[in-house]
Amino acid sequence: MGEASSTGTDDDLLLKNFFAEVSEVERDNEVNRILTCFKLNPFEHLNLPFGASPEDIKRQYRKLSLLVHPDKCKHPQAKEAFGALAKAQQLLLDQQERDYVLSQVNAAKDELRMKRKKHLRKDTASKIKSLVEEGKYEQMYEQSEEFQQELKLKVREILTEQEWRRRKMQMRISEEQGRLKKDEEEAKEMWKRKREHEEQWEGTREQRVSSWRDFMKSGKKAKKGEIRPPKLKTEDPNKSYVQRPVKRG
Questions:
Q1: What is the three-state SS of the chain?
Q2: Between the CA of residue 231 and those of 142, 189, 223, 228, what are the distances in Å?
Q3: How far apart are CA 119 and CA 137, in angstroms?
Q4: What pTM, to 2 d.p., does this model score?
Q5: Buried b (16+ CB within 10 A) or exposed e, 77-97
Q6: Can you tell me the distance from the alpha carbon of 194 to that of 84, in angstroms, rounded to the nearest whole number?
Q7: Nearest to residue 33, comparing CAs of 102, 94, 80, 86?
């Protein structure tokens, strides 16, 4: 317990001495570095290697956040840089988000290793050296500044591709949701019109029934003052009458 407390005190002292030596120009430079980082890679914002541990992440965040804190840094975009650091730490301390970034890092390493193997097939001297040293040659290469820079760029490329796919998928989902919503609204409008028609039809039911009854009562009787044509007489053996002869012109 005492050792832990002592370690914390030592860290605070180191930070205090560090900030005492930091100039305003260095603070401004750090703000500019953070704001020009690749936005999809939180490791870049915190200026950490991909193998950094959660403790490394917390320690580095504390150091850089104090460096660009709006209360201590006069840069007009210090607040924006401070927020970017906070978001980077949040992502990297989230196990799921961190695993996602590291999975893309591993994919980038695999691509670079395949590229390296193809190069070794053409470079006989490097191939022999790699075989003789039993993998140590490749390990040394992957620790080199050249490989780390290639890895950084390849990770950017892969993260960009994944983000573009995610956005395209999100756009398609949004379009489909919009189409479904439109269909739902059209269906609701159709049922609304149908219901209004049924209500209107039911509302005139009594009037229609009354009109029909009036028609049935008066339909067979001549209206007052109405002249109807005479019915045509036909020969009927049961009736004794003489049909008048039809005059012919």
A1: CHHHHHHHHHHHHHHHHHHHHCCHHHHHHHHHHHHCCCCCCHHHHCCCCCCCCHHHHHHHHHHHHHHCCCCCCCCCCHHHHHHHHHHHHHHHHCHHHHHHHHHHHHHHHHHHHHHHHHHHHHCHHHHHHHHHCCCHHHHHHHCCHHHHHHHHHHHHHHHHHHHHHHHHHHHHHHHHHHHHHHHHHHHHHHHHHHHHHHHHHHHCHHHHHHHHHHHHHHCCCCCCCCCCCCCCCCCCCCCCCCCCCCCCC
A2: 116, 56, 17, 9
A3: 14
A4: 0.58
A5: bbeebbebbeebbebbeeeee
A6: 55
A7: 80
Q: How confident is the model at residue 70 (pLDDT cuts 50, 70, 90)?
A: very high
Q: What is the DSSP code (8-state) at residue 144?
A: S
| Angstrom distance (rounded) from CA 93 to CA 95 | 6
* Long-range own/partner contacts, residues 4-7 (CB < 8 A, 24 or more apart): none
Which has the closest alpha carbon to 92: 137, 60, 117?
60
Question: Helices 54-67 and 78-93 sit at what angle, rounded to 10 degrees?
Answer: 170
Q: What is the pLDDT of residues 134-188, one digit of tens each?
A: 556 677 888 888 888 999 999 999 999 999 988 888 888 888 888 888 888 888 8
DSSP string for 167-194: HHHHHHHHHHHHHHHHHHHHHHHHHHHH
Question: Which tens digits make up the pLDDT trace of 91-128?
Answer: 999 999 999 999 999 999 999 988 888 877 776 655 55
- Residue pair 132/126 in contact by the 8 Å Cβ criterion: no
